[in-house]
UniProtKB/TrEMBL annotation:
Protein name: Diaminopimelate decarboxylase
Family according to the record: Belongs to the Orn/Lys/Arg decarboxylase class-II family. LysA subfamily.
EC number from the UniProt entry: 4.1.1.20
Domain named Orn/DAP/Arg decarboxylase 2 N-terminal: residues: 38-280
Source organism: Thalassolituus maritimus
Role according to the record: Specifically catalyzes the decarboxylation of meso-diaminopimelate (meso-DAP) to L-lysine.
Domain Orn/DAP/Arg decarboxylase 2 C-terminal: 30-369
Amino acid sequence: MSAFLYQNGSLHAENVSLTALAKEHGTPLYVYSRSAFEQAYLAYTVALGEWPHLVCFAVKTNSNLGVLNTLARLGAGFDIVSIGELERVIAAGGDPSKVVFSGVGKQAHEMQRALEVGVHCFNVESEAELERLSAVASELGKTAPVSLRVNPDVDAQTHPYISTGLKDNKFGIDINDAVRIYEKAAGLPGLNVKGVDCHIGSQLTEIDPFLDALDRVLALVDELSGRGITIEHLDLGGGLGVRYQDEQPATPAEYIAAVKERLGDRTFKLIFEPGRSIAANAGVFLTQVEFLKLNEHKNFAIIDGAMNDLIRPALYSAWQAIVPVSETSAEPERTYDLVGPVCETGDFLGKDRPLKIAAGDLLAVMSAGAYGFVMASNYNSRGRAAEIMVDGDKAFVVRERETVASLFAGESCLPD
Ligand code: LLP
């Protein structure tokens, strides 16, 4: 059940009124639901049941400490792509031994820190990275657990910017080269081959591409085993889609049941790196209408939220539902483009939306818990929004609104 429902005509996050939150904390504002995060995470662990597993939330999706802490308390693992994300996980009480380290450009100092805190596995994306990791680990006198992220060359049938498993993407190692590179890994000092990793893209609504990738990974694992290289875990990445508009994505339960069936009596530990399917529908972005501008050909609602706060519509032409916080309105229905104050034609959060609104009204952009705040910028010297975590009838500020002073705190004028 959604955590964002109308109560007495007014949209709530769990039992907290969004109008009250906007009044107290101002807009634009990100509002999350603790129980929505928890339920979405548990959908994975419940479906995995007794099967050995680790569900590593993809930190890039929403890296707020309050969010990470909510999941860490449930025993979640985390998928990170930078030292910054690793330090966030640690600061939020996450267990480093449940962290997988992904990403194509890991630097030596990042590898060092990850080895010091003892991450679960490095998902290595190139031969050059493997050599660097071997050198860094050997110098520290440590052994790095590794998986190779293989690129199974399957079409995830998603937006080209978020499809990652095709041959011409920058990610992963060509699966046809994988045996040779695994053999190399097995012979390099400071490395311990643990698993195979793949991630083919994001916002996948069908299970078939995942299963195609799994079949190719299993064929690789068999070949490795024939050459004396034993694999302990399969990391199937993230990628499961959510409903933004009218998509009918598979549920984690359906996806995991299909994976288990495909594995048959193979007993590999399974790692998943879900992001969007845990976070997207656990958050909304609240914004206020500043002005209505009714032109001959087009109506604009100029809102106080902008592309710097939520870039998905501008960057991917992504569609997210936009609803009034108050269910009742005496205004006539008109079709609006919802545009922000940033000086770019691409600065919109929604286009051609039928709405009954007036200046001063609050709107909620739905499904904003994933790739929302994390992709925000200070473009046009706009401070980033505050973030609130709602828990039942309580609301906690999990990130304060950025002040104007903080915008240039690290900058300086030239000397005299
Ligand atoms: N693992 C790896 C290695 C990834 O690259 C990603 C996402 C995930 C896991 C999590 O995938 P998810 O479960 O969220 O699909 N900013 C874009 C999405 C970029 C996805 C990047 N990688 C958007 O707003 O749609």
